[in-house]
Write a structure and sequence with these properties.
- This protein has nine helices and seven strands, in the order H-H-H-H-E-H-E-H-H-E-E-H-E-H-E-E.
- By secondary structure, it is α/β, with parallel strands linked by helices.
- The protein has a single domain, classed as Rossmann fold (3-Layer(aba) Sandwich).
- Helix 5 links the parallel strand 1 and strand 2.
- The chain is globular.
- InterPro entries: SAM-dependent_MTases_sf (IPR029063).
């Protein structure tokens, strides 16, 4: 499957990007020469997508707010055709569902989690009347999405042989050191130039996450944009 994504869709992606640029220009948006194509397409998407066009009511337990879910849906809409998204720390499946339901049907979502229940999750179960977290629970919640592959393994140590370039990387796994730093360092290397690295829980009491996200942005010479607790960084193109 990785080789198909790597080699089987390059020409289609190029064609789709070109047509998207044309549509954006047709409504008066022009791409400055210094702006990466993927970044430009995201800006186009933001200008054209209205809230009713976004699918955010998954019915799946989540800690993301409605506005944070809408922002993630916008980012998903901007993934090029035949692109790839990574949802790390996929939990019950809301973020995977958001990406799969709002992106072009040709994209593929890799959802990674251990799906091992932790004591703190009891609060989530009570709040949402949710079943205990498990891989089976995730698959039940996302059963209607044909373009999601779920992988029940710890990250990043289980993925030394990963070879699939990523357009959108959503990080919501362990927010504490050293895991958050290891994941960001490992997976950001596979994000395509001009791709998006984003995640959740960017707030003052998540000190390890703040430190690592800010360090990643500094390394890229980029800035961290926030929408509630959802953060995002553009990887330089």
């Amino acid at each position: 499957m990785g080789l198909q994504i790597l080699t089987g869709s390059r020409s289609k992606r190029s064609t789709s990007s070109g047509s998207s640029e044309s549509r954006c220009r047709s409504i008066g948006l022009r791409m400055p020469p210094e702006v990466n194509t993927f970044v430009f397409l995201i800006r186009c998407a933001y200008s054209r997508i209205k809230a009713p066009d976004l699918k955010t009511d998954s019915g799946i337990p989540t800690l993301l707010s409605k506005s944070e879910s809408r922002r993630l849906a916008q980012l998903a809409k901007a993934i090029p055709a035949n692109g790839v998204a990574l949802d790390l720390g996929a939990f019950y499946g809301h973020s995977s569902w958001i990406i799969a339901q709002n992106a072009d049907p040709s994209i593929h979502v890799f959802a990674i989690d251990t799906w091992k229940r932790q004591p703190w999750m009891r609060n989530v179960e009570i709040r949402f009347s949710a079943p205990p977290l498990s891989w089976k629970t995730f698959r039940n919640y996302t059963a209607g999405c044909r373009n999601i592959s779920s992988i029940p393994l710890p990250s990043p140590e289980s993925f030394a042989n990963w070879n699939v370039p990523i357009d959108l990387y959503f990080e919501d796994a362990n927010h504490a050191a050293p895991t958050i730093g290891r994941n960001l360092h490992f997976w950001s290397e596979y994000v395509k130039p001009g791709g998006v690295i984003c995640g959740w829980n960017y707030r003052h009491n998540s000190k390890d996450l703040l430190k690592e996200v800010d360090a990643l942005a500094s390394r890229f010479g980029s800035k961290v944009s926030t929408h509630g607790q959802l953060w995002e960084i553009m990887k330089p193109g």
